[in-house]
Automatic annotation (TrEMBL):
<dbReference type="InterPro" id="IPR000008">
    <property type="entry name" value="C2_dom"/>
</dbReference>
<keyword id="KW-0449">Lipoprotein</keyword>
<keyword id="KW-0106">Calcium</keyword>
<comment type="similarity">
    <text>Belongs to the copine family.</text>
</comment>
<dbReference type="InterPro" id="IPR037768">
    <property type="entry name" value="C2B_Copine"/>
</dbReference>
<keyword id="KW-0611">Plant defense</keyword>
<dbReference type="GO" id="GO:0046872">
    <property type="term" value="F:metal ion binding"/>
</dbReference>
<dbReference type="GO" id="GO:0005886">
    <property type="term" value="C:plasma membrane"/>
</dbReference>
<dbReference type="InterPro" id="IPR035892">
    <property type="entry name" value="C2_domain_sf"/>
</dbReference>
<dbReference type="InterPro" id="IPR002035">
    <property type="entry name" value="VWF_A"/>
</dbReference>
<dbReference type="GO" id="GO:0005544">
    <property type="term" value="F:calcium-dependent phospholipid binding"/>
</dbReference>
<dbReference type="GO" id="GO:0006952">
    <property type="term" value="P:defense response"/>
</dbReference>
<protein>
    <submittedName>
        <fullName>Protein BONZAI 3-like</fullName>
    </submittedName>
</protein>
<feature type="domain" description="VWFA">
    <location>
        <begin position="343"/>
        <end position="562"/>
    </location>
</feature>
<dbReference type="InterPro" id="IPR010734">
    <property type="entry name" value="Copine_C"/>
</dbReference>
<dbReference type="InterPro" id="IPR036465">
    <property type="entry name" value="vWFA_dom_sf"/>
</dbReference>
<feature type="domain" description="C2">
    <location>
        <begin position="179"/>
        <end position="303"/>
    </location>
</feature>
Length: 589
């Protein structure tokens, strides 16, 4: 029924070793460690005592709900809060046609020893109709439930081997005597390190496991652990019909491989769509061994394991390392703490769809008793977060879709009414300029984002000629009804290679599907009217109704994707933290 992205093609994709490319910033993992969020709380005096852990999963004897094939399982992890509500922490990839899966994708969780952290693990069979859909966008109601297990996080951590096997049950413990199989959860502490290696593998003279064509090989790499056994850390994509394959480069962090001397198990399989992948051969080498293979331009032979070590069959097929380089992967905080600045800009929706501001039902209504309207709430709550990251707390502030004093409709006017200066100071300045604009600007339309995006892009582009330690963030607050969708896409595509991110905050209960298209969270990068593809995803959309209902915090909603977007730009331009550059210059002086 599914693969890593819910179809056979997805099942052939690489997992766990992707390069940090500008076109694909680090995928967000709900509940995972986020530099920006932690940095915000720490700077506000909150010092949570926690250890960051990664949870990995394997299962045995899962239910088979498919008629002509086996289930395609995925694990979803939840934290059960004190009020009984479930907070999703993350999802594994989907494994194709397998009742005894070993997942590669880990789920990150902060272990707080002073708290009882109840975890719930649910296993789903992903339906084949979701072709090549990223797992985080899958609607779980559309998938078949295979079983669930639960435990307290400390139960896993206190085990000697940090592994706990749970007997799966039906939803809420129901299911009678039916056997749902087992799920094993293993916890490892996250290693804080910037070190990573980029490796490109090639094989030659592999054994052919197919009758009417050649093998479709892929590599699976696992790290051995002290307690015995091994944990998969990544796999390559599948190369079809090839006994001498070359795979795309993998980027492995020290967090994944442990140390350069840690033994890695490298297995080569022939891919089969029914999930019964055939082992072509295996070998064991450390990262240091792989570096030596690269330097010596030599290969190493695969072998077929035997119950007796002295009877292992050495094969003709060999593994080669065509590329090996070490790199440092800097974090969001590395850049910010070294002197990089985030500069924020704000744009507020003044279109007629918000309702007559003189009437209480309008989202722009100013309450005489001081109760904040939807826009004031968004400005206040969002502003408290964004101004923390802005060095001078001076924001260019614009409105769009309003009829200004001269009688013309403007799609980018200065919110403070000053024709020559758009900046205001702090959240108070934005609130004052907004209230003043409501008295002087009539709501009109249509809703066009293109001009404010272009204005922000102009400011970001001008900074490149004088200073490369600034990154810009445009905050758009809107009711979500967009008129110029394609023009906005064109502007976003043009801006995607600039130091710019765009946070869209949706107010009210409108249909926000257009905003979700711009967010491109389903893996489909934006395309302009001329066919140009966005260099990277630069949009994050947050509906305020989710914040106000308690589903997410403002901090989490706004900063969830910003670090990945920021880092994707810095890495694509090979820009390093200022302190790193200063140290490098000092060492060569």
């Amino acid at each position: 029924m599914g693969g890593c992205f819910s179809d056979v093609r997805g099942g052939k994709d690489a997992v766990g070793g992707a390069l940090p490319r500008p076109t694909e910033p680090n995928a967000k993992n709900d509940g995972a460690h986020n530099d920006a969020i932690e940095f915000f709380y720490r700077e506000h005096g909150a010092y949570p005592l926690f250890t960051q852990l990664e949870l990995s999963f394997s299962a045995s004897k899962l239910l088979d709900l498919d008629v002509t094939s086996k289930s395609d399982p995925m694990v979803v992890v939840y934290l059960k809060k004190n009020d009984g509500k479930l907070e999703e922490l993350g999802r594994t990839e989907v494994i194709l046609n397998n009742l005894n899966p070993v997942w590669i994708q880990k789920v990150s969780v902060a272990y707080q020893f002073e708290m009882v952290q109840n975890l719930i693990f649910r296993v789903y069979d992903v339906d084949t109709q979701y072709h090549n859909v990223p797992v985080k966008t899958l609607n779980l109601r559309d998938q078949e439930f295979l079983g669930e297990g639960s435990c307290v996080l400390s139960e896993i951590v206190t085990k000697q081997n940090r592994s706990l096997t749970l007997t799966l049950k039906g939803k809420n413990g129901h299911g009678g005597l039916r056997n749902f199989g087992t799920l094993t959860v293993h916890a490892e502490e996250t290693i804080a390190s910037r070190s990573a290696v980029e490796i490109k593998f090639r094989c030659a003279h592999l054994d052919n496991k197919d009758l009417f064509s050649k093998s479709d090989p892929f590599l699976r790499i696992s790290r051995t652990v002290e307690t015995g056994g091994s944990i998969p850390i990544c796999k390559t994509e599948v190369v079809d019909n090839n006994l001498n394959p070359t795979w795309k480069p993998l980027c492995l962090s020290m967090q994944q491989f442990g140390s350069k001397d840690t033994p890695l198990v490298i297995e080569c399989f022939d891919f089969n769509s029914d999930g019964n992948h055939v082992l072509i051969g295996k070998l064991q080498k450390s990262v240091a061994d792989l570096e030596k293979l690269f330097k010596e331009k030599s290969g190493v032979n695969f072998f077929i394991p035997s119950s007796r070590a002295d009877h292992e069959k050495v094969l003709k097929g060999q593994l080669f390392v065509d590329q090996f380089c070490e790199r440092e992967q800097f974090s969001f905080v590395d850049y910010i703490s070294s002197g990089f600045e985030l500069n924020f800009m704000v744009a507020v929706d003044f279109t007629g769809s918000n309702g007559d501001p003189r009437k209480p039902e309008s989202m722009h209504y100013i309450d005489p008793y001081g109760r904040l309207n939807s826009y004031q709430q968004a400005i206040t709550e969002v502003g408290q977060v964004i101004q923390f990251y802005d060095a001078d707390k001076s924001f260019p502030a614009w409105g769009f879709g309003g009829r200004t004093a001269n009688g013309t409709v403007s799609h980018c006017f200065n919110l403070n009414g000053n024709a020559s200066e758009s900046e205001v100071v702090g959240v108070e300045g934005i609130m004052a300029a907004y209230a003043n604009a409501l008295r002087n600007v009539a709501l009109s339309g249509p809703t066009l984002f293109g001009q404010v995006v272009n204005r922000a892009a102009e400011i970001a582009a001008r900074s490149l000629s004088s200073n490369n330690n600034k990154y810009y963030v445009l905050l758009i607050i809107t009711d979500g009804i967009l008129t110029d969708l394609q023009e906005t896409k064109d502007a976003l595509v043009r801006a995607s290679n600039l130091p710019l991110s765009i946070l869209i905050v949706g107010v009210g209960n409108a249909d926000f599907r257009q905003m979700e298209i711009l967010d491109a969270d389903k893996g489909q990068r934006l395309e302009s009217s001329t066919g140009r593809i966005a260099t990277r995803d630069i949009v994050q959309f947050v509906p305020m109704r989710d914040v106000q209902s308690g589903q997410i915090s403002v901090v989490q909603g706004l900063l969830e994707e910003l670090p990945g977007q920021f880092l994707s730009y810095m890495r694509s331009m090979d820009i390093k933290p200022l302190t790193f550059n200063a140290a490098a210059q000092a060492s060569t002086a």
